[in-house]
């Protein structure tokens, strides 16, 4: 996005992305970091995929609810993190890796904070599911949105005006200014 309109639009996207990111993280904090009143607390689950296997052993509905909740809890970060960064031109793989890594760190932070709350446990599978959800949301939404923004920016750029004879006018060039010879510069500084 170039020009004053593009800069303003990019700034608006960044502000909106940051505001939505803060709102979503506030909601996730409220949702996950509340004390839970339960008569018992299960042990922490540090073994990867143990909770996922246990959920799949239950009924299909409860497994879908548990796994879907883990995938969807932080999935909006896959879209909000690039939106808050506000760049329409980015390498897709680098953007995915950057977003997935940042999302994994946020998920790990929530998991560590959750372990300190009464009635909550540390679960490695929650971090894995959250990270996969972030990466999936990024892959499904961000490339399409960036392509649309690039098309919109390309349409907004003015095409050169045609000449009256139907041929296109040549691109204007800026004349270059030559550098003064060294002898002229050095002789004036000696006197």
Automatic annotation (TrEMBL):
Classification via InterPro entries: Teicoplanin_resist-assoc, VanZ-like
Keywords attached to this entry: Membrane, Transmembrane, Transmembrane helix
Stretches that traverse the bilayer: 12-33, 63-84, 96-114, 126-145
Residues of the VanZ-like domain: 22-141
Pfam families in the cross-refs: VanZ
UniProt-annotated stretches for the region Disordered: 153-191
Protein name from the UniProt record: VanZ-like domain-containing protein
Provenance organism: Streptomyces antioxidans
Higher taxonomy: Bacteria, Bacillati, Actinomycetota, Actinomycetes, Kitasatosporales
């Amino acid at each position: 996005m170039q020009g004053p309109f593009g800069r303003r639009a990019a700034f608006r996207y960044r502000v909106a992305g940051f505001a939505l990111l803060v709102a979503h993280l506030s909601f996730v904090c409220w949702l996950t970091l509340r004390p839970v009143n339960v008569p018992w607390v299960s042990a922490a689950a540090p073994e990867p995929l143990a909770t996922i296997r246990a959920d799949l052993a239950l009924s299909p509905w409860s497994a879908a609810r548990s796994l879907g909740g883990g995938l969807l809890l932080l999935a909006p970060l896959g879209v909000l993190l690039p939106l808050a960064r506000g760049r329409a031109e980015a390498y897709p793989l680098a953007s995915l890796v950057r977003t997935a890594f940042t999302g994994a760190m946020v998920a790990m932070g929530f998991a560590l904070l959750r372990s300190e709350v009464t009635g909550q446990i540390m679960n490695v599978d929650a971090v894995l599911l959250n990270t996969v959800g972030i990466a999936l949301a990024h892959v499904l939404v961000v490339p399409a949105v960036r392509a649309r923004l690039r098309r919109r920016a390309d349409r907004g750029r003015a095409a050169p005006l045609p000449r009256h004879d139907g041929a296109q006018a040549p691109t204007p060039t800026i004349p270059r200014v030559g550098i003064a010879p060294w002898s002229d510069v050095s002789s004036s500084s000696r006197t």
